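Sequence only, no structure available. Ideas?
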Amino acid sequence: MKRYGDAVTALDLSGPDAAVDSLAAVRSQAPRTSLTEWVADALREEVVEGRLRPGSRLPEQRICTALKVSRNTVREAMSQLVAERVLVREPHRGVFVARPDRAAIRDVYRARRVIEVGVVRDAELDSERLEAVRAAVEEGQGALAGGEWDDLASANQHFHRALVALAGSPRLDQQMALLLAEMRLVFHGMSGVRGFHEPYLAGNARIHELLESGNRAAAADAVVEYLREAEEHLLAGYPE
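Reply:
I predicted one. Tokens follow.
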């Protein structure tokens, strides 16, 4: 059985890569929750933004140094992310970023249909939160125009995060963060970032237009179809 660290260079948290830079920036921010949750949030966000990839090993001490926290805090945060299926722990080898399987994709989309469709259908359409949806659409269009394909993938994540944020529910925001982390790990298993994400930009814009017009029922129907197509697209190209 293939192990998570095979053929993967361990993440070098002492080097000048994007993940290190982001973690170094995070340490200047005051934790809004417990220190353990703050570290878990920081690591999860690296996954959501695509800077921590499936199979990457997470060396505890380098994370401690980057975030200026104790080893026990990092271990507790990693245990939380293992429970969330974002990381996996291998005895005598360490902790690695997970590789979701096809069953995980199906389950994530079950959850997304409940959360995203429900929010779009029932949430109050606050103008400030709708602005965040529009901004994510424009972010994706800008990434496409600039040929920034990883940024295009991130913009799509930001769009779905903004959709769920329409509910104004911290609990739903937290649940969506977990789902988006798993989704980004799934995306790494697909070939051609542009080929996968570009077709959904028009769908993002259409959903935003329907929400702006106040047609929540049609927007919810559009999200249902969008998620159905995306799930089928993923399963058709995802390795067994």
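Residues 1-17 have pLDDT under 50 and may be disordered.
Hope that gets you unstuck.
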